[in-house]
Amino acid sequence: MTQPTSTRSPLYFNYFLTNGTCKFVVLFAGLFACVNVWACDQQSLGVHGGEAPRGVVVYVGFAKDQNGRAVPDTRVSIPIGNGSYVIHTNAAGAFTFDFGLTEDPASIVFVCAKDGYQSTTGKKIKSSADPHRILVVCSMPRN
Predict the structure, then answer these.
(1) CATH code, 56-139
(2) Which residues lie across from 94 on neighbouring strands?
(3) Distance CA 54, CA 76 (A)
(4) How far is CA 67 from CA 73, 100, 135, in A?
(5) CB 3.0–4.6 Å: which of 35, 44, 52, 124 could bond 58 by disulfide?
(6) pLDDT tens digit string along 10-47?
């Protein structure tokens, strides 16, 4: 194998690829990316040390059919005042939503709808461990 030259010829790149350094750099970069994605995901869910941030109520919800299977891409409407927020569940039938404490958690309603299913109002279950985290379950029977 040719040793690297100071002019950085194409042979230097081949040497770098066959050397163990390249594998280490790729492994390290992949690990760094995974850690960053996990951290961003935790922040987007409002998870800080296992609890919701102070002054925020985090709603974590699921849309399921009568057999307990996830219902992906369910439209979840949250009417507030004269308007409403609309979010959609992911492929696992899950969604998250957070409000400041200006809204009374008892007054918040989650309406779940999807073609082929009956529209339902989500059932809210408060967490005994964290009063600022509320589970919402939408049980959606098929039409």
Answers:
(1) 2.60.40.1120
(2) 62
(3) 25
(4) 17, 34, 19
(5) 52
(6) 554 455 445 555 444 443 444 343 333 333 344 444 44
